[in-house]
């Protein structure tokens, strides 16, 4: 594995981990649906520019727009809005840690609705993750729970929607290129989230061009929802899909680092222990019992990497 790929992987984790920091900044002036709409708009501009420059075909008539819109709503618009709302109540680092449970929820959704079978490693992994979630609640005799329960639950709901979207994206990825899926997803997210935002949230246009908010928009939309795709696909092409998905393990750590250095968020022992338990659970859940299952798992991942949105904050 070239050393440059490790640098790109770290850079990608810093960008996606930083997304929680940018959301934390923007949520003071903008509503969750407005943030989801505007970040997808900026990401769409980046992806469209890349496709035009590189000559990637759009082939809009080949895109099944109804399934694409449903997938974008479930896999992008709703979880992005829930993440934004949750960050009004919990630290950005904790939001990132909770989002790391997405692969485990994807396994649960697969077992319940898509006839996926779990092996002993996956059951153990889910047990580790549940213990990690309990640790994150920081139970104590005085206040029972030390974190905001509504924000905590909203972040879990966001991860559940990511997990459902991961199953849906598998089916779209078999017919479309990674660029078409990204373009269609961001376009539908922009329209869907924008419709809700204009209907339910006041949009302070005067803040759009203030320097702090403008820089946050560039970081969240252009980099977090645009440039990050280029880095992700570069790792997939030059390395492997399995190596690219390792970013899932790094994002919570980089997000905690951003929150600690730029937002003065405290790093509690329960946060660190909960993170380690959850990541151990994700690691165990990714293991397979047999060579046959391993081959099937690799094929599923190759079909799945066309849409990295399920691990996006």
Helix/strand-derived category reads mainly alpha
Approximately how much helix is present in the residues?
A: over 70%
Overall body shape: globular
Mean pLDDT reading: 82
**Helix count, per DSSP?**
13
Would you kindly provide a brief summary of this structure?
The chain has 13 helices and no strands.
Characterise this structure.
The protein is mainly α. It has one domain (3-311). It is built from 13 helices and no strands. It has helices spanning 3-26, 32-54, 65-86, 92-99, 102-113, 120-136, 149-173, 178-200, 211-238, 241-244, 247-262, 269-285, 291-304. The protein is globular, with a radius of gyration of 19 Å. It starts with a helix and ends in a 9-residue tail after the last helix. The mean pLDDT is 82.
Name some characteristics of this structure.
single chain; 313 residues; mainly alpha
Secondary structure elements and their pairing?
Elements lengths: L2 H24 L5 H23 L10 H22 L5 H8 L2 H12 L6 H17 L12 H25 L4 H23 L10 H28 L2 H4 L2 H16 L6 H17 L5 H14 L9
Helix pairs in contact: 1-4, 1-9, 1-11, 2-3, 2-8, 2-9, 3-7, 3-8, 4-7, 4-11, 4-12, 5-7, 6-12
